[in-house]
Amino acid sequence: MTTSPIGVAVIGAGMAGRAHCAGYRTAPTLFDPPLPPIRYAAVIDANEGVAKHAAERYGYERYGTDWRELLEADDVQVVSVVVANHLHREIVEALLAAGKHVLCEKPLAASLEDATAMVAAAEAHPDLVSGVGFVYRRQPAVAAIRDLLTSELGEVSHFNGRYWCDYARSSETPMAWRYKGGPGTGALADIGSHLIDLAEFVCGRMTSVSGGAFTTKVKERAVPLGTTYGHAKAQLSDVREPVENDDVATFTAHFESGAVGTFSISRIAPGHANSLAFDLMAENGAAKWDMDRPAEFSVIRQLRGDGFDGYNQVLAGPDHPYVKGGLPMDFPGCSYGVGDLFGYQARAFLEQVAGIEGGLPKVAPFGDGLRDLTIIDAVARSAAAGGATVSVS
Question: What is the pTM of this model?
Fold first, then answer.
């Protein structure tokens, strides 16, 4: 275990970038043993004002607009890459070559080719820690359900998952990089990547997908005047550009265990700001969870067949993963949100960098990010072939 200070930088100060900035700030306050001293070195963003605001808000020493300045920065050992997907590969490869540990947001890349190259770059530097930000693995309720499957519920027969958002519902939402790219790079890659990862996290590996279907309801969007970040509104220009990818994606899947899965993903679902949920049916019971009520889940732990088989509501508490020591009030009924998960993720990544053993589960490696994109690509090929079954290697 190293006790040397660890310098942190974040590239990209938009919605998710700010969550990374805050997560590193929170990480030293979570769990034991203590982390080495953390130095909050830099925030980089193409928009200087955005970078300055994030650096000041989260207490980072400096800000800038060119990520290349981090390559020779002796005070930076860890970098989060939180920019548009098509920019990931160049930045990540350069950072690894410069000897930096890299945490890259999901999806890992904009294409299978780029993701494969990034995995190779990480493997070429085994002394460096690299990971991809599948932050929802850190949901205490989800992790508790996964543990119950292993200990009591048995093999899953059916996973039914959805990720519905409304950030793109309005045609007045401005054009951004999220709406560019081929089939499958829209809602499926943006938010479906999380759902796909959770499905395999809980149920094991998929073997095939079928019934892939996409639709795009908002056909074009106005180019904004000025810079936009996340899902923020903006003043719009008179220039409109076509939307190139999917608003809605659906598909089914088979798993190695013999389970089947059904998936529904939408970025135009009215009334669903950020609604990730799943039900799963297993050999000896069932479980369900909905991020609208993140700190609780429902479970059937034993099937007696006496007319009283039903779901039991469980409040996440210190008997479940991440809660004890991970919240200021680690007590059932004291809720948590998505922002807390970035703290858990940052803590886990810094533990890996520091060489702390026996702490939080490790951050998903780049290989898991490639795996996720392989499934996304298979869904896109299924949709292109009218819903045909496509194997997932």
Answer: 0.94
